[in-house]
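We emphasize that the prediction below concerns an isolated chain of 278 residues; any contacts that depend on oligomerization or on bound cofactors are therefore not represented. The input was used exactly as deposited, without trimming of termini.
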Amino acid sequence: MKKRLFPIFLTLVLTVLTAGCTGEFNRVFKSSDYDYRYEYAKQCFALGKYSQAENLLLDLIALKKGTEDAQECLYMLAMSQYMNGDFEAASETFRKYHTTYPKGHFSERALYYVGQSLYEGAPEPRLDQTPTIGAINAYQQFLDYYPDSPMRSTAQDRLFILQDKLVVKELLSAQLYFNLGGYFGNVNSSNESNYISCIITAQNALKTYPYTKWREDFSLLVMKSKFLLAENSSEEKRLERYRDAEDECYGFINEYPESKDRSLAERYITKCKKFIGD
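Result of the prediction step, given as a token string:
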């Protein structure tokens, strides 16, 4: 019986304490003593109670404007939003801080956290990458403003991770076009246009990201698409496209002589030569 009573007693104690904390917060929130509310908000922030801090600071921003506490108040609000996982709001508040106080006490960290907030909210590569582009621009702005910042290395690392997301997005798009090209089976305008779209997407990605670690993957898609495009072409286009595919195969072998797909390139060359008559 005693063992069963202890958990009940503990639950009651926690309930009373929680109710007490909630009651105290409500009293502070309704207080007309703004300095007292601000000190309580700072205490909540220091204790990691970011939701309570945010609720208080949102109301105090306008009241503290023009005072010595204004900078700290705005920065704590942004950081509270960030710690609460509201990355979109945090990025906007951090940017507001840096715009309002470009030489403020927290200006360097605020601009860094504009990028960091957008980085945390960046979607997976299959989704729209507009937030990713925003994060890249924010980090680049930070590096331009503060080239000697101790956070420079981290910002650069995050920048590369974000750029990789854009590359993967292009790779997935090119792969999708390639897969759709073969989906329809025999020759038709749909699979031809999909192979062409794959080639254009992959080649544009190689121009934009020439040093990407997925360079061979893009090149392979171009080679395979050009060969299949030739095989699925009408009679009047086939000879020219086989020649283009053959050149692409040789280019692939020259750039990636140790590639596991070298044998595929060589098989393509044999088929191209058979049609061309070399």
